[in-house]
Design goal:
By secondary structure, this protein is of the alpha+beta class. It has three domains: 5-51, Uridine Diphospho-n-acetylenolpyruvylglucosamine Reductase, domain 2; 56-167, 2-Layer Sandwich (Uridine Diphospho-n-acetylenolpyruvylglucosamine Reductase, domain 3), CATH 3.30.465; 173-282, Enolase-like, domain 1, CATH 3.30.390.50. It contains eleven helices and twelve strands. It has helices at 12-22, 35-40, 76-81, 90-97, 102-107, 110-115, 124-129, 147-150, 222-228, 235-252, 259-282, and strands at 5-8, 26-29, 48-51, 61-63, 67-71, 133-138, 141-146, 160-167, 173-180, 191-200, 203-212, 219-220. The strands form three sheets. A five-stranded antiparallel sheet has the order 4-5-8-6-7. Strands 9-10-11-12 form a four-stranded antiparallel sheet. Strand 11 (203-212) and strand 12 form a beta hairpin. The longest helix has 24 residues, at 259-282. The radius of gyration is 19 Å and the shape is globular. Bound molecules: flavin-adenine dinucleotide.
Amino acid sequence: MDIKKVYMGRSVEEVVRLLGEYENKAKVIAGGTDIVIALRNKVIEPELLIDISKVEELKGIKEDEEYITIGSITTFTEIVESEIFQSNLYGLHKACKMVGSPQIRNKGTIGGNIANGSPAADSVPPLMALDSIVTLLSIEGTREISLEDYYYDSIKENELLVNVKFKKPKDNQVLTFAKLGLRKALAISRLTLSSFIEFDDNIITSIRVASGALAKFPMREKEVEDYLLGKSLNEETIEGAIEALRNSMDERLKGRPTLPYKRIAISTILREILEEALVFEKGVKAW
Ligand SMILES: Cc1cc2nc3c(=O)[nH]c(=O)nc-3n(C[C@H](O)[C@H](O)[C@H](O)COP(=O)(O)OP(=O)(O)OC[C@H]3O[C@@H](n4cnc5c(N)ncnc54)[C@H](O)[C@@H]3O)c2cc1C
């Protein structure tokens, strides 16, 4: 690694000013679990590395009447240990708990997971299913974009990801998550799915499903959503949802060598997230 300068950022204002001054020659480092590899392999060679791991304004999980807001340098471990992500937000807890190893979870941050832009970022499908909004700050000002749009209008070189927020769930809504990795512990996920479902008298009255590693970026699976909306969950509709997802994957991944494997694998994890939602809806398990 040949970094000219490393600076310990103290405030959001200062970090944003430096990002503006250095234009595309500065990079922020949060937990370092992704960027250190990129630096070592000389994929990136910034003049200035700004360490944001001690910036207070970027830390922690906050709750108000309407929103839950996660500061960008909140680690996976902090999310796993938070009481907020139990009960009907358990899907985010599960996603963060399945990231890498304890060391990676202690260091890796939610902001780094989003900003790195990997199609296999584990926290992104549940955050996308929650219809999250990302706050980005630069010397030009603040912009808020939905996580779904983020991959088409991604973070700019001079922007700092400040937080990610989503509406607090109602009692009849539940977030679920499942992951299929090549190796259990340290696998960068090969396939992930997350659903956020609202039930009213057994019927799905609102649904968002998001996938990871089924396309260039994590994305919403609208065909599955359209198929399940207005139905109740049972063996027949779960099979129907799997078929809907397979049809849409056939189009999207046409000609890819991974398609046959993904077609089979997807049924296991789609079934898992829908059955978890069903368990919640039936109130069989204490959440
Ligand atoms: C062995 C190993 C196993 C892993 N397993 C998994 C896994 O199972 N699932 C998974 O999803 N990921 C996994 N990862 C990837 C990684 O740990 C995550 O993506 C992590 O969330 C990155 O966060 P970080 O704070 O370490 O980011 P960093 O490495 O510090 O930064 C990553 C990128 O994001 C930018 N960035 C970081 N924070 C901000 C911010 N606030 N504003 C603007 N830009 C920012 C940096 O400039 C850099 O480009 C693994 C990595 C390793 C090395």
